[in-house]
């Protein structure tokens, strides 16, 4: 009987580990009705909720040394990332990683622009712009880890460039007489 237990125990443990892994992956993937990732926010909502907010944390670190930002008196309920519970340079690190991670959200099929038109997630230039955003986020993350404002200043330029490259085509006047840009503007 002890031989069976010694053989069975690793099998049960392996099964539990696999079950936990599958459950964790499923919990992290927002699913549509068919199990595919869904895009509940339109592109403009995603930009305002995630990219705009987190890029501003990085931009703020250019002027004010995050190490010198005093925590709010009510740190646990603060809505200011730099002075909140995970403030200072950690906030800049977190915001940098949020930009890099948000690049994945920009590629979710079914995402629409604010005007209801499909976001150009399948376009080659879109993929290039998303890759630029991901790289800029990771550059900002490395700069935040260094806790060096000069490095953040350079990294901020990369974030601005990544955003501007996409906005020029898809948000602002666009190319082809504004035809592409009109895809994601009102």
Descriptive overview:
It is a single chain. This protein is mostly helical and 186 residues long. It folds into 2 domains: 30 residues; 146 residues, Four Helix Bundle (Hemerythrin (Met), subunit A) (Up-down Bundle), CATH 1.20.120. The protein contains 5 helices and no strands.
Largest sheet: none
The assigned structural class equals mainly alpha
Radius of gyration: 21 Å
Stretches where pLDDT is under 50 for at least 5 consecutive residues are 1-31, 174-181
Number of helices: 5
Quick synopsis:
The protein contains five helices and no strands. By secondary structure, the protein is an all-alpha fold.
List the main descriptive attributes of the protein structure presented here.
single chain, 186 residues, mainly alpha, Four Helix Bundle (Hemerythrin (Met), subunit A), globular, disordered N terminus
């Amino acid at each position: 009987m002890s031989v069976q237990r010694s053989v069975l125990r690793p099998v049960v443990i392996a099964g539990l580990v696999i079950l936990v892994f599958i459950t964790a992956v499923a919990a992290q993937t927002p699913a549509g009705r068919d199990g595919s990732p869904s895009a509940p926010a339109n592109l403009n909502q995603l930009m305002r909720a995630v990219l705009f907010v987190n890029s501003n944390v990085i931009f703020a670190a250019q002027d004010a040394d995050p190490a010198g930002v005093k925590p709010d008196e009510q740190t646990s309920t603060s809505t200011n990332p730099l002075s909140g519970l995970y403030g200072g340079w950690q906030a800049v690190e977190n915001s940098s990683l949020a930009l890099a991670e948000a690049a994945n959200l920009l590629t979710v099929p079914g995402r629409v622009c604010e005007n209801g038109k499909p976001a150009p997630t399948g376009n080659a230039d879109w993929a290039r712009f998303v890759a630029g955003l991901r790289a800029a986020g990771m550059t900002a993350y490395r700069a935040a880890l260094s806790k060096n404002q000069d490095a953040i200043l350079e990294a901020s330029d990369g974030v601005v460039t990544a955003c501007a490259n996409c906005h020029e085509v898809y948000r602002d006047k666009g190319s082809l007489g504004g035809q592409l840009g009109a895809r994601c503007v009102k």
